[in-house]
Amino acid sequence: xxxxxxxxxxxxxxxxxxxxxxxxxxxxxxxxxxxxxxxxxxxxxxxxxxxxxxxxxxxxxxxxxxxxxxxxxxxxxxxxxxxxxxxxxxxxxxxxxxxxxxxxxxxxxxxxxxxxxxxxxxxxxxxxxxxxxxxxxxxxxxxxxxxxxxxxxxxxxxxxxxxxxxxxxxxxxxxxxxxxxxxxxxxxxxxxxxxxxxxxxxxxxxxxxxxxxxxx
Amino acid sequence: xxxxxxxxxxxxxxxxxxxxxxxxxxxxxxxxxxxxxxxxxxxxxxxxxxxxxxxxxxxxxxxxxxxxxxxxxxxxxxxxxxxxxxxxxxxxxxxxxxxxxxxxxxxxxxxxxxxxxxxxxxxxxxxxxxxxxxxxxxxxxxxxxxxxxxxxxxxxxxxxxxxxxxxxxxxxxxxxxxxxxxxxxxxxxxxxxxxxxxxxxxxxxxxxxxxxxxxxxxxxxxxxxxxxxxxxxxxxxxxxxxxxxxxxxxxxxxxxxxxxxxxxxxxxxxxxxxxxxxxxxxxxxxxxxxxxxxxxxxxxxxxxxxxxxxxxxxxxxxxxxxxxxxxxxxxxxxxxxxxx
Lengths: 216, 340
Prior knowledge:
The complex is a heterodimer.
Chain A: E1 3-5, H1 7-35, H2 40-58, H3 63-78, H4 82-93, E2 106-107, H5 108-126, H6 136-151, H7 156-173, H8 197-211
Antiparallel strand pairs in A: 1-2
Helix pairs in contact in A: 1-2, 1-8, 2-3, 3-4, 4-5, 5-6, 6-7, 6-8, 7-8
Chain B: H1 14-25, E1 30-32, E2 42-45, E3 55-62, E4 79-85, H2 91-101, E5 107-112, H3 115-132, E6 136-141, H4 161-174, H5 179-191, E7 193-199, E8 204-205, E9 210-211, E10 219-222, E11 233-236, H6 240-254, E12 262-269, H7 275-292, E13 295-302, E14 312-319, H8 322-329, E15 332-334, E16 337-339
Helix pairs in contact in B: 2-3, 4-5, 4-8, 6-7
């Protein structure tokens, strides 16, 4: 299968995540103030500022190493829950294509395998699944939709578009959930009515992965 | 959002600049771990290396000063790992701290029971075990009674009771006990320590440029967490006696504390509540305990685990036995807690 996603695409995603989090940090932090400890946006901003300061040197690496470096920076600089979860997502994302050269892109099959690897580690690290008012409520339905659309023969951008929609629906479903994981779990019924901040930020992150994809 | 009345430079540098200042101010007690893994987020006691003992590492997010860094020193904690404000440290500094304090007898990680702290400290512990064969055991403090019922204690968060559990573990290690004994003492102190807080204003986060959450002037929230996690009831600020009464009921019921018990009491400021008010609150705590036939063995009143400039206080009770008394009375010397 041809490589439909170039190395430049993977660089552009990171380049676009940097201003995105600066624009959205207050929104995510406000979501977090409602049900958590009000640091989600700020912490991601601390992490992506670190990424920004190293991106030029990392750009020359292959996709796997670039994303591993991004993940390690988030893990190191963010801390909290977002550090290990976002950090692990990026660290594992490139593992399926770790043998590729510095200028090689990836195939649709490989991209699906990368998302699978990255999203699966979040379930493992957070010891969490859907229905617990966490980022898994965005990520797991998104992954299922991506895999299903890809298996049905959709091109990768169409498939990722369906993943984004499924992720958004998953995000919206967190509004009426009682949290059983993370800091919001102490709130019981009082968390109902609020979106989960991690589910919200990961939904927007997936959208950037989608929007940066070239049209088929 | 109210204007910040805080003194800082670049809000993104506030934690690193605090650590730099602290290391210089308290150089008789601590020094920075300058290893690459520590990332400037680990302070180590100058006592480390003077004798072989179980290493005590405490830590968590910053913004709770003097928790956690203030308790590193002789016969208390051997190192502290610090994260961003209200945010746990990352795995590498946790690993660095274990390496810095291990004398071959193993290391105990002690921190408040929050999902992010558990993930990061666990990853740091795994690294210390895998890379350097250091035995690391962890104790997560779970003293906040409103954060989960006692039968779901595993879900409880750690607040000012951290102090009690760290102190007991630090003393046990200083006495030369083995790692399993240190963990047992820490868990015992953990089991019999119960806390609850009240807040009358939000703390402020410099990088956010304002308060963590909105709160009407004149309101209070009973049961609020140390990071501003919502509590059990919001209402108008009431008299000290009424507020203490409302907080003491769930605390006393929890263990439960009973007639004939002896307790250690902490009335803790969350940052902005003055000693005057804290002592007014303690007066009522003492009255209630006397009515119940519970003896106050020792009391601490002051800022021990804060939430920056949050107005509010917490009450912590620990039920004592002879062993815990010995641990909590054991001499120690740190910048923010000394006893002879």
